[in-house]
Amino acid sequence: MGAALVLLAGCSGSGKDLPPVPPEQRELAVQQGYFYEIAPGDSVSIFVWGLNDLSGTVPVRPDGMLTTPLIEDMPASGKTPSQLARDLEKEYAIYVRSPIVTVIVKGFVGLPSQQVRVIGEAMAPAAVPFRKHMTLLDLMIAVGGLTDFAAGNKSVLVRYYGGERQEYSVRLDDLIRDGEIAENVSLLPGDILIIPEAWF
Hints:
The chain has helices at about 1-10, 25, 80-90, 135-140, 170-175; strands spanning about 45-50, 55-60, 65-70, 70-75, 100-105, 115-120, 125-130, 155-160, 165-170, 190-195. By secondary structure, it is α+β, with helices and mostly antiparallel strands. β8 and β9 form a beta hairpin. The strands form 3 sheets. The chain has a 5-stranded mixed sheet with strand order 7-6-10-8-9, with no helix packed on it. The protein is built from 5 helices and 10 strands; from the N terminus they run ααββββαβββαββαβ. The radius of gyration is 21 Å and the shape is elongated. The longest helix is centred in the middle third of the chain and has 12 residues, at about 80-90.
């Protein structure tokens, strides 16, 4: 909570003083270069072909490691499922001839760098795992929309783009309450949405 308050204090607190999201960032394609990376709290299903005793579903621990039969501490956090599968094959090869491993992520938490966070006057402020082609509208649906006390049109989008921190005004009242789809914008992993309280 303390970090959120510091972030709020560091922003203008009023989207009216900030520029809108520029056109080149409104419809981003995250696209080819984006791959989900396993995070602490994820649940992963490990299938070892022909070896049911080595297959199963395990959690990724808070320290980013997981434990499977024959392997006590395997680093998993920050790897794609394919990378983890190849690493498991190397470890299992000590005990099994030519193992073939598939990893399937079943529960998604996401690394902090692959989450989108919402703080302030959302119905359910949260850190939401980023999804490819995710938009502002998708995010607001995920957090249940705005509270009755939200100043939606003064909301602020904090984004790191091109190696720099940038802040933009977003008009959530227009988007959600008035249906102005033109106010919808693409999101990026790591975006932070700040929704201030209205002053009556």
